[in-house]
Amino acid sequence: MAIWHSSPTVETVNQGMGECMPTYLGMKITEVGDDYLVGTMPVTDRTRQPYGILHGGASVALAETLGSVAANLVVDANKFYCVGQEINANHLRPVADGEVTGKAQAVHIGRTSQVWEIRMHDARGKLNCISRITMAVVPVPSR
């Protein structure tokens, strides 16, 4: 049974990202499972640090994007939205090229907060980063 409030598709989720940071960095949602979200980001000059490997901040941007999108897909967007409260990341191995793939899965879905774990792998399937994000579930202001 799916945890999503509606029935999101890869196409609708990607369209919803618009022309902001995820698009600029080349992020794409590639899979929407019943209880997880998968996305990719290329390792290019836009996402590398000066030493030629994936920038840790780019990994965190992918993690925050996947966790935020997933969290917002769980709630009724007419009543709530989710915003990041805290994020951490453990960078386990460098990635110099190709792309990284992240998978976000819920650790906790509560009334006022959610916690998501994002595991990122390189093109060979090697784990390069583990991140966890806490999201606040905020009521949409009355008009």
UniProtKB/TrEMBL annotation:
<comment type="similarity">
    <text>Belongs to the thioesterase PaaI family.</text>
</comment>
<feature type="domain" description="Thioesterase">
    <location>
        <begin position="51"/>
        <end position="127"/>
    </location>
</feature>
<dbReference type="InterPro" id="IPR006683">
    <property type="entry name" value="Thioestr_dom"/>
</dbReference>
<protein>
    <submittedName>
        <fullName>Hotdog fold thioesterase</fullName>
    </submittedName>
</protein>
<keyword id="KW-0378">Hydrolase</keyword>
<dbReference type="InterPro" id="IPR029069">
    <property type="entry name" value="HotDog_dom_sf"/>
</dbReference>
<dbReference type="InterPro" id="IPR003736">
    <property type="entry name" value="PAAI_dom"/>
</dbReference>
<dbReference type="Pfam" id="PF03061">
    <property type="entry name" value="4HBT"/>
</dbReference>
